[in-house]
Amino acid sequence: MFTRFRQERADPRGELHFSSPFTLLVAVVLSAQATDAGVNKATPALFAAADTPEKMAALGEAAIMELIRTIGLFRSKAKNLVGLSQKLVADYGSQVPRTREDLQSLPGVGRKTANVVLNIAFGQPTIAVDTHIFRISNRTGLAPGRTPDAVEAELERVIPAEFKLHAHHWLILHGRYVCKARRPECTTCIVRDICRYPDKVR
C-alpha cells in the first residue's frame, strides 16, 4: 500500500498554510472540527496580526474571535490560542516544544494535534489519526480499531519504518480525495486490489 502511495506522491505535504512551528500549531488547533480550506481562509489575517506567541497573547480573545469567526468553535479556540501562547512564553521561552508530553500540556492541544506538529514541524515519524485515517484504517483492513488511539497503535505496529514519516499525509490525502466517507472512488483507487472493504463502488 505505502509503496504505491510513495510512487504516486513521493513527498506528500499537509494542506494547512503556515510559516513557522508556532503558526503551524495555531493552524492545527484551529483545524479541529473544521476544514483545512476554511482554516486557510482565516489565518492570513490572524497571522498578519499575530505570528508569535507574544503577539497572539497580546492580541487577546476578543480580537482573535473576530479574526477566526468563520471557523467552528471559534470562541473556545480563541481562548485556547491565548492560553497556549501565554504558556509558550512563560514555560518554553516562546518556542514550540518538541515532545508530545509538553505539547499536550498546552491548552487546546490533544494527542492528534501534537502528533501533527511533531511530524510536520520537527520531522518526527508520528501518525495523527483524524477522521480520514480512522475511516481508511478500518475500511481497508490496514489497522482496524474502535478508537483513534487503538488505530494509531496498530498503524505504528504495521507500517514499516521507511514509510512512517509520510504515512499520515498519504492516508489523509487518500481519504480526502479518493477513499471518501460517503462515496469512495474505488474505481480510481490505486490500492483497490489489496483493500478489504466488502462494499467497493463498482
Q: How would you describe this structure to a colleague?
A:
The chain has two domains: 21-122, Endonuclease III, domain 1 (Orthogonal Bundle), CATH 1.10.340; 127-194, Helix-hairpin-Helix base-excision DNA repair enzymes (C-terminal) (Endonuclease Iii, domain 2, Orthogonal Bundle). Helix 4 crosses helix 6 and helix 9 (131-140) packs across helix 11. The chain is built from eleven helices and no strands. It has helices spanning 2-8, 21-30, 36-49, 53-59, 61-67, 74-92, 100-104, 111-122, 131-140, 148-158, 164-177. It is mostly helical and 202 residues long.
- How many helical stretches? 11
> Sheet bearing the most strands, described?
none
Oligomeric status of the shown chains? single chain
Distance between the termini: 20 Å
Question: How many strand units?
Answer: 0
Corresponding CATH architecture of the largest domain = Orthogonal Bundle
Q: Report helical residue fraction.
A: 55-70%
For the record, the count of structural domains works out to 2
Q: Estimate the mean pLDDT confidence.
A: 96
What is the N-to-C succession of helices and strands? HHHHHHHHHHH
Topology-level CATH name of the largest domain: Endonuclease III, domain 1
State the low-pLDDT regions, or none: none
CATH class of the largest domain: Mainly Alpha
The CATH homologous superfamily of the largest domain is called: Hypothetical protein, domain 2
Structural class: mainly alpha
Inertia-based shape = elongated
Radius of gyration: 18 Å
Our estimate of the beta-strand percent is: under 5%
